[in-house]
Structure formats: C-alpha cells, structure tokens
Backbone:
C-alpha cells in the first residue's frame, strides 16, 4: 500500500512527518509569489495537478510544437515522467523563493535554447523547411496558455467558480511565470479575457492539427495509466477519475480532433463525481489535499 500511495504522490519527502502547525506556517511564507497570491492558492490544491494531462493533450495539437516534442522530448515515450517533471519545475516557480523561481526559469530557458531545428517533412499545416525554436514566444504561448487555462478549468469545475477579479489575478501571476521563462510581457495576452480569446482563436483558426500516429500515442496518456500488476488495480479509481476529467474538461474542438466520445450520460457521471470530490475533499487531511510543495517554506524547495 505504501508503494501505491507513493506512486500517487501521497507519501513524499515533502509530505511525511509534518504537523498541521508547520503546514499552516509554510502556507504563510512569501516566496517569489506572495503567500496569498492566486497562483499559490490554486496550485496548492493537489487535484489541480491533474490538469496537466488536459494541458498536454491540447499541446499535442500544436503541430509545430509536436515536431519539437517528437525530436527533443520524452512526452510520447514516457508521459508520466514528462508530467512529473513539468509539475516539479512549475511548483518551484509557484511556491519557491525568488532565487529558486528565477534559477528554475533560467534552467528551462537553457533547455529551450537547445530545442530548435527545421521541419523535415510536412506535418499538417506546417510546411517542410519551416524552422522552429522552443524559445520562440509565439510557440511558447500555446504551452503557457494551456497550462493556465487547464488549471482554471479544473479549479472551477471541481471547487466552484472564481470571481472575475480572481481569474484576472491568476493570469497576472501566470504572466510572471511566462516572463520567468523568457517571454516578453507584450507576447502574452494582457488580461484574462484576452487569454480566453486567444485560446478560442487557436481552437477555430485551423492552426491546430494532430496526425493519427500522434493522436494514438497521445491518447495513451489517458487510457494507458503508467501502472501495472497489483498497483494498477489499487489505483484504478484514481486512473478512472483522471480519464473522465481529462476528456470531459477538454474543449469540444480538441475532443473531436482526438475522436473522444462525449454525451449527456458521461457529463452526468462527471458532474456527480465532481460533487462527491468537492464534498469529500473538505475532510481530507492536508497531506492528501494539498500539493506537497505548498506545504514547504519557500526557501526549502531547492532540494526537491
């Protein structure tokens, strides 16, 4: 059972042996982002980490980014490691102190500088010979936007709607994440409504595409959980919840590109599950409910 809990992240170096008093104290420590910032409030909920699956499914529909993914990333070969790596790096920026947030951003920028090349053969709307660079702010924006949009969707669908000013504050924080990653301020939507407009535009402007091969490998992120044997059996409820929300929370356009079915019956099951989670989560202990990084002082995350 310990192995199962550790695989889900319920037991970790950050989640063992901490008292409620120390957890409360950690949540009050300012880091790069203030303790009461929206980005820390939202990502302190461990369930928001599941939004990374939705974000990756959307990112896999950006054809130029996929060229880079296939050549330079383990996304399609080892999606679990990719998801965990993304969560780790983003958590260091969400919850770390100034030095850690900035050094993490610089490390990611250094990795991005190595990811560049030329498209060898046409891929959907991307012509052969097109150049790409992971440091290109325009290419980075879809990745950043899907992460922020997915977190907002999960937060509101699971825990209830945010006020407009809370959504705006969250995107303002996320723009700072973008700047940590080297994106100029004017390369990102200036407000949260503009973020939504950008996402809607990408969904309808014909710029997204996914090949049958990439579609099959991407859907494995949802349908082939990275567990086997008895561990797969123990974590079936968790895996099923991830599958249902990962598909149900996708924009209709993305679901259609993947060929995922959805109907009122599935939507009802999802809504019922969300209501149960919303009620049950109020009773969960901190070690389960809160993201481990949110329970550490901001200056103590460098070792994770």
Residues:
């Amino acid at each position: 059972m310990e192995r199962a809990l550790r695989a889900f992240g319920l037991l970790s170096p950050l989640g063992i042996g901490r008292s409620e008093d120390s957890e409360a104290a950690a949540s009050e420590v300012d880091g790069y982002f203030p303790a009461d910032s929206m980005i820390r409030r939202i990502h302190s909920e461990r369930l928001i980490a599941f939004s990374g699956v939705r974000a990756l499914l959307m990112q896999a529909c950006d054809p130029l980014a996929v060229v880079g993914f296939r050549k330079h990333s383990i996304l399609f070969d080892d999606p679990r490691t990719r998801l965990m790596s993304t969560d780790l790096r983003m958590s260091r920026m969400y919850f770390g102190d100034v030095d850690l947030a900035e050094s993490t951003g610089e490390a990611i920028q250094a990795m991005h500088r190595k990811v560049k090349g030329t498209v060898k053969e046409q891929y959907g709307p991307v012509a052969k010979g097109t150049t790409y660079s992971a440091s290109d702010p325009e290419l980075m924006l879809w990745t950043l936007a899907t992460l922020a949009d997915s977190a907002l969707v999960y937060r509101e669908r699971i825990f209830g709607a945010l006020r407009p000013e809370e959504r705006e504050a969250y995107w303002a924080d996320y723009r700072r994440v973008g700047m940590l990653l080297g994106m100029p301020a004017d390369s990102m939507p200036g407000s949260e409504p503009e973020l939504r407009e950008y996402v809607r535009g990408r969904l309808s402007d014909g710029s997204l595409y996914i090949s049958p091969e990439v579609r099959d490998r991407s859907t494995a992120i949802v349908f082939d959980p990275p567990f086997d044997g008895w561990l797969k059996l123990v974590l079936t409820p968790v895996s099923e919840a991830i599958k249902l929300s990962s598909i149900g929370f996708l924009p209709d356009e993305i679901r259609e590109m993947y060929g995922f079915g959805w109907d009122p019956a599935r939507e009802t099951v999802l809504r019922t599950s969300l209501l149960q989670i919303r009620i049950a989560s109020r009773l969960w202990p901190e070690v389960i409910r809160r993201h481990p990084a949110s329970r550490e002082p901001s200056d103590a995350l460098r070792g994770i």
